[in-house]
TrEMBL record:
PANTHER family: ATP-DEPENDENT RNA HELICASE, ATP-DEPENDENT RNA HELICASE DQX1. The keyword Transmembrane does not apply. This is ATP-dependent RNA helicase homolog DQX1. It comes from Cercocebus atys. GO terms for cellular component: spliceosomal complex. Residues 694-717 are annotated as: Disordered. Might be involved in RNA metabolism; it is missing helicase motif III and may not have helicase activity. Residues 57-225 form the Helicase ATP-binding domain.
Length: 717
């Protein structure tokens, strides 16, 4: 049978002159002229030389695992899925579809669009994609691109995975939590519902090849030849510039003045710097004395949404794409001839000891630096300007990107592993094993949330929590809202906290600041988010309305979709719903109770009345975020004494974000008693224990009084 997919692959690509009636085997329609144009481009890709080798290994390899190793831009992400689709088609669809994972939702959508175009098929029919709040697939979908974390969620939930013929784990060198976890589960043969002859294709950069080869037990490797283009020699700066954004802008402007041909790719560490660079360049390029149209400046980061497709559009003007680590390996742009690299990345790294995220500005890996340089290869080679000395990466950069499983909160992952009945998550194979303390902290948090039973397995509540595409504490708060009759408000809040957590930059004008203040709620940031969402819906989801208030329109649209998805999930599980009552005093207290039920681990107390908050679970001191509604009020007011927060980030100002005032009595009432007992010694813990004792005495007194009242009438009678 080995020859069948190979013959099929040759048959559906004749030139127009050879066969005007050649039909696409996937939909039975004649090929368009664009198909042949794109086919010629595909033939020039380095990976095309490895096509037959790959198909032979996919068909005949007894282990079912094939590694594909090649440099960025070689065509791996677009061609491997198509060849896997040919393989499945040759088997008569008897063994299921092809699923291709991507580490970023934007990459999954972008690749689906490109591959559907190359295969001459309709997106959403034979080729589709699944990303958060957007499922563009149908009953006839054969090839599906999927965000890897979404696939991991599907694997663990009752929704199941369908039947796979081939599973392609793309961009393995990105080391996402979901990709590493899926490899561990597959290597351990933990996915019992998958067919025994499942084919697994792991696609990676050559730098990670030795580790993957050892992990999978020496499977066959398909090596992709290097691209023929010449590689640019990097130009290094003598020192690191004090202002990265300004240095990058000046480098771009210098290229524009020289009118050097080709598009420009700029790498900066963070989304904030990307926005500053785009704003500055958009102003500066308009005044340049150029013979051609001024360059078009385009940001590329996760919040761009569908606007990211603009980087692929053919334009008369030069494109200047400003990005960060997102485009180290994904988003190949053939028109790029010039790269400007800051050599740094800003990453969130979770510390399980204090349950906080650190904003870490660090050097990129040598693997990332090489991938960035290769963006400018060609005939003749382009240019690669490194805004750092050569010794900077040689002395400080690690060889490979850091595995995210060693840097993220693992509570959600452990919940999913428990759902797969893996009793000890530490026994699951990973390319790099996470720290034991990170796994222990995740288990402890799930135990506090009542997601585990006395044996350490998932409780009934834990099973329900694992169904939701939310952080465990947020899913617990949503479930608690069923008890406290505030489901409608909590659905909105869960969607907003996940997809659109408020304002992310200072107001640009006094008018914008006034419009923002009108959206703030006196009860705190959580109620303000609900108010923002309701106002957004009342505006008709108007983009101009969002721009006037400094809100992210795309993120709010995602929140709207997520809310609908969560509502459908609750209805499917047959959980009780409640009518909207936002604004009433009873609803305010009910919403606070629901939040405390999930977020009792994230409570802080103002110890001196000046806004210095001591976190209950450890002795770190933090301040309210500059975007917090309590700080933006005009009238001076004492900060709330007890607050519940959504995130604690250790950065230059150690801030609490998304904060609302709570009553300590509510915390004593709703938090597990053993949680309060396990708090580190502090004045806050003593106050809570006093409250608990007082509430216990009051309860005992009430019971005694009730018994006496019952007895007294008997005596009188």
């Amino acid at each position: 049978m080995a020859s069948q997919p190979l013959r099929l692959a040759e048959e559906y690509g004749p030139s127009p002159g050879e066969s005007e009636l050649a039909v696409n085997p996937f939909d039975g329609l004649p090929f368009s002229s664009r198909y042949y144009e794109l086919l010629e481009q595909r033939h020039t890709l380095p990976i095309w030389a490895a096509r037959f080798t790959f198909l032979e290994q996919l068909e005949s390899n007894p282990t079912g695992v094939v590694l594909v190793s090649g440099e960025p831009g070689s065509g791996k992400s677009t061609q491997i899925p198509q060849w896997c689709a040919e393989f499945v088609l040759a088997r008569g669809f008897q063994k299921g579809q092809v699923t291709v994972t991507q580490p970023y939702p934007l990459a999954a959508r972008s690749l689906a669009l490109r591959v559907a175009d190359e295969m001459d098929l309709t997106l959403g029919h034979e080729v589709g994609y699944s990303i958060p709040q957007e499922d563009c697939t149908g009953p006839n979908t054969l090839l599906r691109f999927c965000w890897d974390r979404l696939l991991l969620q599907e694997v663990a939930s009752t929704r199941g995975t369908g039947v796979w013929g081939v599973l392609v784990l793309d961009e393995a060198q990105e080391r996402s939590v979901a990709s590493d976890s899926l490899q561990g589960l597959l290597q351990d043969a933990r996915l019992e519902n998958l067919p025994g002859d499942l084919r697994v294709v792991v696609v990676t950069d050559p730098a990670l090849e030795p580790k993957l080869r050892a992990f999978w037990g020496n499977p066959p490797i398909v090596h992709i030849p290097r691209e023929a283009g010449e590689r640019p020699s990097p130009i290094y700066r003598d020192t690191i510039p004090p202002d990265r954004v300004e240095a990058a802008c000046q480098a771009v402007l210098e290229l524009c003045r020289k009118e050097a041909p080709g598009d420009v790719l700029v790498y900066l560490p963070s989304e904030e710097e990307i926005s500053l660079c785009c704003e500055s360049l958009s102003r500066e390029v308009e005044s340049l004395p150029l013979q051609r149209l001024p360059p078009r400046v385009l940001p590329l980061h996760p919040d761009c949404g569908q606007a990211v497709q603009a980087v692929y559009e053919d334009m008369d003007a030069r494109k200047v794409v400003v990005t960060h680590w997102l485009a180290d390996f994904s988003f190949s742009l053939p028109s790029i001839q010039h790269v400007i690299d800051s050599g740094l990345e800003l990453r969130s790294v979770y510390n399980p000891r204090i349950r906080a995220e650190f904003q870490v500005l660090r050097p990129i890996s040598k693997c990332q630096a090489e991938a960035r340089r290769l963006r400018a290869r060609g005939f003749p080679p382009g240019s690669c300007l490194c805004l750092y000395p050569k010794s900077f990466l040689e002395l400080e950069a690690p060889p490979l990107p850091q595995p995210r499983v060693c840097e993220e909160n693992l509570s959600s992952l452990v919940l999913l592993l428990k759902r797969r009945q893996i009793a000890e998550p530490g026994e699951c194979h990973f390319l790099d094993q996470p720290a034991p303390e990170a796994l222990m902290q995740a288990l402890e948090d799930l135990d506090y949330l009542a997601a585990l039973d006395d044996d350490g397995d998932l409780s009934d509540l834990g099973v329900i929590l694992s169904e939701f595409p939310l952080a465990p504490e947020l899913a617990k708060a949503l479930l608690a809202s069923c008890e406290f009759d505030c489901v409608d408000e909590m659905l909105t809040l869960a969607a907003m906290l996940t997809a659109a957590p408020g304002f992310t930059r200072p107001p640009l004008s006094a008018e914008e600041a006034a419009l923002r203040r009108a959206l703030e709620h006196t009860d705190g940031d959580h109620s303000s988010l609900i108010q923002v969402y309701e106002a957004f819906i009342q505006s008709g989801a108007d983009e101009a309305w969002c721009q006037a208030r400094g809100l992210n329109w795309a993120a709010l649209c995602q929140a709207h979709k997520l809310r609908r998805e969560l509502l459908e999930l609750m209805q499917r599980i047959e959980l009780p719903l409640s009518l909207p009552a936002f604004g009433s005093e009873q609803n305010r207290r009910d919403l606070q109770k629901a939040l405390v039920s999930g977020y009792f681990l994230k409570v802080a107390r103002d110890t001196d009345g000046t806004g210095n908050y001591l976190l209950l679970t450890h002795k770190h001191v933090a301040q309210l975020s500059s975007y917090c509604c309590y700080r933006s009020r005009r009238a001076p007011a004492r900060p709330p004494p007890w607050v519940l927060y959504h995130n604690f980030t250790i950065s230059k100002d150690n801030c609490l974000s998304i904060v609302s005032e709570i009553e300590p009595q509510m915390l004593v009432e709703l938090a597990p008693p053993y949680f309060l007992s396990n708090l580190p010694p502090s004045e806050s813990r003593d106050l809570l224990n006093q409250l608990r004792e007082g509430m216990a005495d009051s309860s005992a007194g009430s019971e005694s009084s009730s018994v006496q009242e019952f007895r007294d009438p008997c005596v009188l009678q």
